């Protein structure tokens, strides 16, 4: 399934993409339960197919199977007691599939060509840092460019989302703990990043993690290796690689990270960026107001966002 978080009439909920339509999965499952004569339909729907993505992912494969049945029901009946179960895609605002991840763990220096362009050696262990939930924006949002820097850079990232609690998981079992895959742009303020040895400052500015356009569930994308990754700016190719070139695979990262910490459903892991980032080019090239950044990854789709400068209002002294 292609799972999304969408907003309609000010209310956020999870959905499934079907061609150019969106099924409201929570409403559809509640309608299905009512059709089946369940007395506590609302309470059961809240428990098994809740309206928020993290809650839904906590239900694991059982919730996913119930959501599939609900989607099939909704596409037949389309309305229930006057409430819509299916929306046209252009009727809703598509948000980041996981709008508020508990953890966003990023892996640096994980594509061989990127490591070489940054003039570093292959790391013996993953380089790990974090972004926070404040950075997450959706596929229909602009990337805010705050006037705290002149070095706004792009980073195409293949990301995976944890689907069940993982602690000390082996590589052979790792993919069973992955709910699905998405795209993230690890937007970076380079001069802020390099103020200190720690990268956090340049990675956690508001709106610096566009995510989407949806979450492809792991039953549909069963092999995370061999996927082409391409980033363009205003149609000009800047990055191209393949997830087969990852130094540390998805399986390795699940094992490595789950030995450090407990991974929870809804945690998002960014697997690293290919070569071609703006700071490593000669001459260097950074994003500016109006630039359109598009990331395409095989079997997932495309994430496209425009850069928008944020104006700071002059302080008025009274």
List keywords for this structure.
single chain; about 325 residues; alpha+beta; Fumarylacetoacetate hydrolase, domain 2; 12-stranded mixed sheet; 5-stranded mixed sheet; 21 strands; about 30% strand
Summarize the model shown.
The chain has 318 residues and is of the alpha+beta class. The protein has eight helices and 21 strands. The strands form four sheets. Strands 1, 2, 3, 6, 7, 8, 9, 10, 13, 14, 16 and 19 form a twelve-stranded mixed β-sheet that branches. The protein has a five-stranded mixed β-sheet with strand order 11-21-20-17-18, with no helix packed on it. The chain has a two-stranded antiparallel ribbon with strand order 4-5.
Query: What would the principal axes of the Cα set say about the shape?
Result: globular
User: What structural class results from the helix and strand content?
Assistant: alpha+beta
Roughly how many Å is the radius of gyration? 20 Å
Number of domains: 2
In the CATH hierarchy, what is the class of the largest domain? Alpha Beta
Helix percent reads: 10-25%
Would you identify the CATH architecture of the largest domain? Answer: Alpha-Beta Complex
Uncertain residue ranges: none
Percentage of residues in strands: 25-35%
Number of helices: 8
- What's the total count of β strands? 21
């Amino acid at each position: 399934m292609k799972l999304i978080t969408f907003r309609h009439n000010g209310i956020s909920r999870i959905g499934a993409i079907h061609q150019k339509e969106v099924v409201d999965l929570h409403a559809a499952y509640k309608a299905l339960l009512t059709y089946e004569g369940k007395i506590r339909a609302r309470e059961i729907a809240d428990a098994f197919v809740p309206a928020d993505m993290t809650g839904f992912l906590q239900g694991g494969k059982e919730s996913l199977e119930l959501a599939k049945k609900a989607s099939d029901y909704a596409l037949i009946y389309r309305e229930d007691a006057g409430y819509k179960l299916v929306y046209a895609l252009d009727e809703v605002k598509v948000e980041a599939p996981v709008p508020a991840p508990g953890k966003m763990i990023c892996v640096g220096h994980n594509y061989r060509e990127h490591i070489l362009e940054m003039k570093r050696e292959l790391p013996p262990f993953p380089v790990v840092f974090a972004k926070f939930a404040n950075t997450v924006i959706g596929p229909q949002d602009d990337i805010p460019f705050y006037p705290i820097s002149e070095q706004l850079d792009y980073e195409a990232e293949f990301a995976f989302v944890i689907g069940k609690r993982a602690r000390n998981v082996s590589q052979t079992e790792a993919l069973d703990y992955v709910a699905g895959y998405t795209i993230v742009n690890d937007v970076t303020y380079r001069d802020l990043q390099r103020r200190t040895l720690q990268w956090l400052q340049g990675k956690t500015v508001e709106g610096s993690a566009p995510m989407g356009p949806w979450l492809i569930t792991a039953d549909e994308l069963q092999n995370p290796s061999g996927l082409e990754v391409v980033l363009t700016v205003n149609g000009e190719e800047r990055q191209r690689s393949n997830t087969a070139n990852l130094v540390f695979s998805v399986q390795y990262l699940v094992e490595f990270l789950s030995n450090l910490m407990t991974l929870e459903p809804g945690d998002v892991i960014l697997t690293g960026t290919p070569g071609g980032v703006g700071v490593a080019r000669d001459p260097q090239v950074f994003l500016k107001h109006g630039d359109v950044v598009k990331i395409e990854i095989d079997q997932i789709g495309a994430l496209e966002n425009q850069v928008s400068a944020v104006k700071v209002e002059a302080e008025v002294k009274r």
